[in-house]
Amino acid sequence: MNSMMFDHSRKFDIVCSGRIAVDFNPVDLNQPLEDCTTFKKYLGGSPANIAVGMARFGKKVGFIGKVSKDQMGTFVTKFFEKEGIDTTQVCQAGQGEFIGLTYTEILSPTESSILMNRNFAADLSLTTDDVSEDYIKQAKIFLISGTALAASPSREAMLLGLRYAKKNNVKVAFVLDYRGYTWKSKEEVSLYYSFIAENSDILIGSRSEFDLMEATLFNDKNDKKSAQFWLDKGNQIVVITHGKDGSTAYTQNGESFSIKPFPVKSLKGFGGGDGYTSAFLYGLTEGWDIIDCLEFGSASAAMLIASHACSQDMPDTTAVKAFIKKEKEEYGEMIARV
Amino acid sequence: MNSMMFDHSRKFDIVCSGRIAVDFNPVDLNQPLEDCTTFKKYLGGSPANIAVGMARFGKKVGFIGKVSKDQMGTFVTKFFEKEGIDTTQVCQAGQGEFIGLTYTEILSPTESSILMNRNFAADLSLTTDDVSEDYIKQAKIFLISGTALAASPSREAMLLGLRYAKKNNVKVAFVLDYRGYTWKSKEEVSLYYSFIAENSDILIGSRSEFDLMEATLFNDKNDKKSAQFWLDKGNQIVVITHGKDGSTAYTQNGESFSIKPFPVKSLKGFGGGDGYTSAFLYGLTEGWDIIDCLEFGSASAAMLIASHACSQDMPDTTAVKAFIKKEKEEYGEMIARV
Amino acid sequence: MNSMMFDHSRKFDIVCSGRIAVDFNPVDLNQPLEDCTTFKKYLGGSPANIAVGMARFGKKVGFIGKVSKDQMGTFVTKFFEKEGIDTTQVCQAGQGEFIGLTYTEILSPTESSILMNRNFAADLSLTTDDVSEDYIKQAKIFLISGTALAASPSREAMLLGLRYAKKNNVKVAFVLDYRGYTWKSKEEVSLYYSFIAENSDILIGSRSEFDLMEATLFNDKNDKKSAQFWLDKGNQIVVITHGKDGSTAYTQNGESFSIKPFPVKSLKGFGGGDGYTSAFLYGLTEGWDIIDCLEFGSASAAMLIASHACSQDMPDTTAVKAFIKKEKEEYGEMIARV
Amino acid sequence: MNSMMFDHSRKFDIVCSGRIAVDFNPVDLNQPLEDCTTFKKYLGGSPANIAVGMARFGKKVGFIGKVSKDQMGTFVTKFFEKEGIDTTQVCQAGQGEFIGLTYTEILSPTESSILMNRNFAADLSLTTDDVSEDYIKQAKIFLISGTALAASPSREAMLLGLRYAKKNNVKVAFVLDYRGYTWKSKEEVSLYYSFIAENSDILIGSRSEFDLMEATLFNDKNDKKSAQFWLDKGNQIVVITHGKDGSTAYTQNGESFSIKPFPVKSLKGFGGGDGYTSAFLYGLTEGWDIIDCLEFGSASAAMLIASHACSQDMPDTTAVKAFIKKEKEEYGEMIARV
């Protein structure tokens, strides 16, 4: 059991918001991107991946976002619909914006990078007019992804979504998801990130993302100080991740829980995060103990970095449970637990 | 005596920030602007006028702002210097921005309007790089004017200024000063205004400006509800103005104080607000009772709407006191007090 | 008699196009602009001044341009109407553009400069949709001013106007009128200027403007070479001005005619050019000898640099003739002729 | 033999300019783009494809263009280098521009469409500073592609390139290549297209592209009228294409030559044009009779619409000759000739 209390009368377990993108992942592995000749096309974007993950776990999911008015927009919308995600609030950009594009470069199982084309991106053209209070108030959780704060008018759409969530007792999950595109300065990142985090209930990010967020707030940063600061501001759970060194969740009652990665052979060095987040949030909404949420998250992450896609390869509950069972049988009960 | 506690070791009584403009006020009175042939040029812009007002009252004043790199920028900077205002943080725009221009139309003593040219305005090009924590922390009060939130990057510069003020126990005065230029939506106004007001100590605006700020927060707006809401958020004084119907200051201890305008013959229907604010803040920093601050503010406002300029005609302490004395002798002690 | 043949069945003697601005000229003379306190407001902009000049000489004048949707736009439109200029094609900008503003600095009778605010200027927002072939074909002369080429979409509106003029045997007068605002590079100036000049019939500019226009065309520039180049391209008259050293008109038949300034006491060092051009074009449309056109132009220029305004002080035919008569009586018949 | 005279002392047979793009062509054929899952990445963009085609025929080729400063830019530059194309004038965009992207949709062998992402495209950021007169004057032919005129500053870079070509007796080939992206109005297309075409030597486009170009020039358009108009302006060869109905070349001496497509089974409905143009220009530079140039062009086009890529599948001389021989053996000598 965890301490989060959700309103079970709500229509949606989660309403995610922000970036829906298209990923082009090379089939030719372990080569510089410039030399790759063949690509698979997938739905992408951190909050979109999380939405798919939650839907695969059987949760009721809605999404507030903007996609391009073309075949790429149709592709991602149809993909959402196939997954059972509500797309009534996924609107189309009307000024020639293009859907955000991500080209992944997989140099080796441990060296990956990402090339994004976010010029005049459809997701960043979301406006305050596209955000409905009636929709948000039907959610247990409203998820904000940091990238949606990177430019106006999407930035203000997110601030309005936050306001509607707070007014209607919707829990706010803030996933830092920092991408260095379209931001004008580091100070700007810190200001907007910290503004959301001062008002969120669940806060998830990497150590380096917390550093960015806290740049205008204090020096001598470390996990304990960060966790305490954001818990003091009202968050109920603060999760700080450290890549292959694992992650720790801090809670209001002063407890903390740590998890390590499962020892899988990775195909690519990214994509685990969205699996982790969706599985962790799934556990939370199921009322699990925090440590079980973390283990479920770590397992989903492990499964995804061994897969080619992010969204498309999101596992369902049965698959994650089977994976954990298999790993424990092979490596011992405490394989991921610290 | 009032309840505001200022740190008297600080170098500046107030550091204002935001818009410095140039006003062109017609000499030909009571005519449509299109028919006016001759104009006087004055320094303008609400926070700039307040800075001049405070300086004339003998206060130590600094300013954070951006002006055009031309004779107009030189004019306002020299004007500030002549008034004894510190201009070390008044920088010059480098991308061809022009100083904000205001053309006033005085159709009659009670009908005035304002035509602004704020296209690519120098003041809105202030960036986070132009805001110094070392400077702000030398102030007793940091004043933010709502117009500076109307567009990026000035918007983020103000958010950073607010952060630095809070970190260094500088009191924040937020003057709503709404101008409908460059804002993208009403929701945007409400979001950014309320974000500053949740963090300010002194909040001053008209009833219609409070309505704008509260648009995404609650319905059934009225002064008592507004005052209580913002006092609950931590403001120590909330002043809501109603033009010729007077204004009221609400304080943390549940008291309220009202003032009426002095019965002067106005030349123009604007410009009183900045006189009011500077005189009210002057009284506060002097430790006066709130009602005396209000009376001083109302007197300064009355003197300014009978004058041609805003900045240039700001009165000094002696003049305001003489004005009040004369008015009271003529109309009675309670002439402005409710 | 001159060699230009005009179609006298046309409704308009001239249709000017491009910039309509508002000038603020200081009343306080011989001071830095920053120290000037009082300004007179006038209609300005080179092609607008020329339109007024032609109208004062009794010519039928039309104008294609865009002004701001505010009192400044109303001012200039009403001014045109009062002068008898057709304003059916003077439209209003709808996206918040402001009319171009010019602040003149008169340091001494010989030292003047100009500060312009052309950020998001209304005149540069003229589009191809605002240009009517039916209107242009009613003109004897279509006048293009170089400043209108400084940015899109005004640039393309001018190219379309040129096309319509050529299709309908309307003579094209190209007044170089270079202003260093909004142009992206010197090459750009040369390319667009030379494109218009290759298609014009009457070409008027200063030596330095010809240098700019010819920058991508040839080296070793001089008046004779310039004149021959542009006459070879089809121009019938090429006028190159040299400020106080006078100006020369070159014609298709190999002749050239020179004129000097009249020896007046100037008030300001600018504004003569538009008087010169309008008076010269007036003479041309009247069928005068080129040297008489030049003398009339030089006289009008002399009268204007001794006046405070450009547009408002444009002389009528009687006044110019009286001025010439007086000058000749005082200084001799050949006072301006070379 | 044809009438074009080239200066054989020049270093480059052709210098192409403008768009270099990346094509993503689906491997899953005959499906809506939204349903395609796998894509091949190719160098694309009409002038880039023509450059590759000319290089494969053994010609010396240079290119003036701008690519993104990332792996996509590296990919196309390396591809050019591998083909022996000079890339000293292929520069990198420095403001976050992305290379133009093309997604092809192949619904059936006869139904294809193209989805482009040209937001803030690298190729359109080419400036006048990127265009070298010294480089252009080393070419026999300077090729301009219409898409490079679609926006500033690339537009002005092309106008400058044209000027340098004319100054140095470089033949100008203008390939209309109209794409409806970034153009502001149809009039704009007509104005800039016709300005280049008035100065070109070889003019190649489809009937609908000629219609666009001539929109502001005359009505009642047809091939003969178009050809005569542009030949009168100085073009030596005008080629007007009609897709599967073939194409016709018109020459200065009043002759015309027509060709039909070869009867191949197409894989996709596009990509033939660039093969056609490169092969036709190849024939011209070899001094072939016009009809032989056309046949060579038609053969190359036929080979390309049966291939998956544009650039990568460009044939060499031997292959085209073999294709023609085979076709003639199968269908008769006059299979493509009219």
UniProtKB/TrEMBL annotation, chains A, B, C, D:
PANTHER family: 5-DEHYDRO-2-DEOXYGLUCONOKINASE, HEXOKINASE FAMILY MEMBER. Residues 13-316 form the Carbohydrate kinase PfkB domain. This is 5-dehydro-2-deoxygluconokinase. CDD domains: KdgK (cd01166). It comes from the Bacteria. Belongs to the carbohydrate kinase PfkB family. The keyword Transport does not apply. Gene3D superfamilies: 3.40.1190.20, putative 5-dehydro-2- deoxygluconokinase (2.20.150.10). InterPro entries: Myo_inos_IolC, Myo_inos_IolC-like_sf, PfkB_Carbo_kinase, PfkB_dom, Ribokinase-like. The keyword Kinase applies. Pfam families: PfkB. GO terms for molecular function: ATP binding; kinase activity. Keywords: ATP-binding, Kinase, Nucleotide-binding, Transferase.
